[in-house]
Write a structure and sequence with these properties.
single chain, elongated
Amino acid sequence: MLRTLARFALLGVALTVTIIIARFTALSVLLGFSVIVVGICGEALYSLYRSFTEE
């Protein structure tokens, strides 16, 4: 439960930083969002892998 809340907090911080950087360059926004998306996809794949290997 605590890990889930920490992930949402990190996602919120990442979005806030992306919005702050967005004021400077549009390319930075695209890079920021791509990093976030890759992180979320990586987390999902890792969780899926762990669920299959725990049994």
